[in-house]
Amino acid sequence: MTPAIPVETANVSAMLARGRTLVTPVLRAAIDRLAPPMNTVAAYHFGWIDVEGNPSASDGGKAVRPALALLSAEAAGAAPEVGLPGAVAVELVHNFSLLHDDLMDGDEQRRHRDTVWKVHGPDQAVLVGDALFALANEILLELGTVDAGRATRRLATATRRLIDGQAQDIAYEQRGRVNVQECLDMEGNKTGALLACSVSIGAVLGGVDDRTADTLETYGYHLGLAFQAVDDLLGIWGDPLATGKRPWSDLRQRKKSLPVVAALAAGGPASERLAHILAADANRDEKTDDIADFDEEEFASRAALIEEAGGREWTSQEARRQHATAIEALHDVDMPAAVRAQLVALADFVVVREG
């Protein structure tokens, strides 16, 4: 069995590396179940092969969710391997959402290379995403235990909420105004729900009661809100070399992310100028005047207005608030000190990451 990382060496790199080491072989075996060409399309998405089908060592993502699932099994006093089916399942659902989101958002780059829909076409992006969702449920239900059934129900609920969040996100792009609470609710669904499930699913497979699982989910939910707040900052001001996306990516897509919504709610001259610009965007004919084709200076000017109105600072503070709430929830769960230290370290990583 893989030992827990001692408190004195609890660091996020080791946690994420352990998660990838344990999860990747099982994940590869799951992808091998898919019919061609979906198996190779999925392998490309995960970074295992390049466009030509040759083995690749591309970035497969941070694997935060699998790491949480393994830690949650240890929080229940079980070995990390007990949480392995849950870790694979949440990673499959997460990537199901990425495949569909990239297509819906028109994102051409993820993890520093072309997205699946760009390389293999929209049909394959949809089909492979659907297949990953089906695999996630299949892997859990194959365990055939009562606890596996409980874990599958939690994953199904989290997935439905994730889809709710994506639907809200798309709808908000077409609205002139979105308030801060609506934005937080959307991001709680889109990001918080699956992270919450990730940090409970291993514990559920380890046999914890629902009250303990719910408390762990509170940690994960607020961790997700902190994660998304930082993601929103990176979506405007992030370094493309770190994020793997185009500069000003969220502004190009007219996303009503937290910095934008907070800036619009702040009032004052900069907020009013930003509102006027966004209202003008909403009246444009997208077929003849696409905002995505604006020059870099225009996006830089909009980012400066958001910052001047206070949207950047408010979002940074919100990430710290959600981080503190997540840590507070851990006080209500009896768990080994080493596991608690790792969960705290992972939460700290979320609010300081650059990509």
Automatic annotation (TrEMBL):
PROSITE patterns: POLYPRENYL_SYNTHASE_1. Coiled coil: none annotated. Keywords: Magnesium, Metal-binding, Transferase. One of its GO terms (biological process) is isoprenoid biosynthetic process. It holds the Pfam family polyprenyl_synt. CDD domains: Trans_IPPS_HT. One of its GO terms (molecular function) is dimethylallyltranstransferase activity. The keyword Ligase does not apply. Belongs to the FPP/GGPP synthase family. This is Geranylgeranyl diphosphate synthase type I. The lineage of its organism: Bacteria, Bacillati, Actinomycetota, Actinomycetes, Kitasatosporales.
